[in-house]
Design brief:
Elements (H helix, E strand, L loop, with lengths): L3 H55 L2 H10 L29 H13 L4 H7 L5
Amino acid sequence: MITKIEVLLLMALLASCLVLVKTSYESRQIFTALDKSRGEQRQLDAEYKRLDAEAQAQSTHLRVERTARERLQMRTATPGVTAYVVDPATPVAASGVAGAAGAARAADAADAAGAAPGARGLASGVVQ
């Protein structure tokens, strides 16, 4: 005859089998998700490398210069197209260079007038 202990052991065995089946199923699901994630990671890494190479190709000096010329109609600054600014209040020496006192007065005048920092260099610069 079957005793209560044998029935209890049989129920424990069945419960253990069910837990094992459930654990194996969950393990397979997790492994499948992991494999899918690794594939997606490889795909994203390849796309990143492609975009990085494309960005490096787009930012070469020659391409930037060509784009500036073609799209923005920019050109290289030459002495022929450079405009020089002369401050009429600054005395110009015979050599074309303002004296130290004149340059200081021009710089002070630019500061007093509230000129931008770049304008100060123009007011006290060399005029030819």
